[in-house]
Design goal:
The chain is of the alpha+beta class and about 150 residues long. It contains two helices and eight strands, in the order αββββαββββ. A hairpin with a 5-residue loop joins strand 7 and strand 8.
Length: about 150
Amino acid sequence: MPEMNAEQIQSFMKNSFPQARMPVEIEELRDGYLRIRVPVSDRYLRPGGTVSGPTLMTIADTAMYYLVLGMIGPVALALTTNLNMSFLRAPGLADVIAETKMLKLGKRLAVGQVTIYSDGSEDPVAHATVTYSIPPDAKRPSTPSR
């Protein structure tokens, strides 16, 4: 079960990172999975009228961070150690959807994948693998003994 729900993550981000201005809506959060939506506006477009690569990378990084928060709780000092992005096709002028899956959550590292879509399309526009470093003093949820 997630350690933080969508409302708690949004509140944590507002209080801990007030400079973060991208409007991110958490559509689904469950153990090991997160889906977010980011409305497309002119500020995210590149010449040619598509969503810019840096915007897609920010969305991938944000989605992974939100999933890490959801799974381990409010850890402001968890940080990106690697982000590998593949741009597959030009995004449409529609909301950007990011679906994030946790591949491995360890004591010190979290590894996940993010698949990014333009709303209304089944074909992904980008794919990322993202690794987050978890600080050693981060409080981790306890696992029930078997």
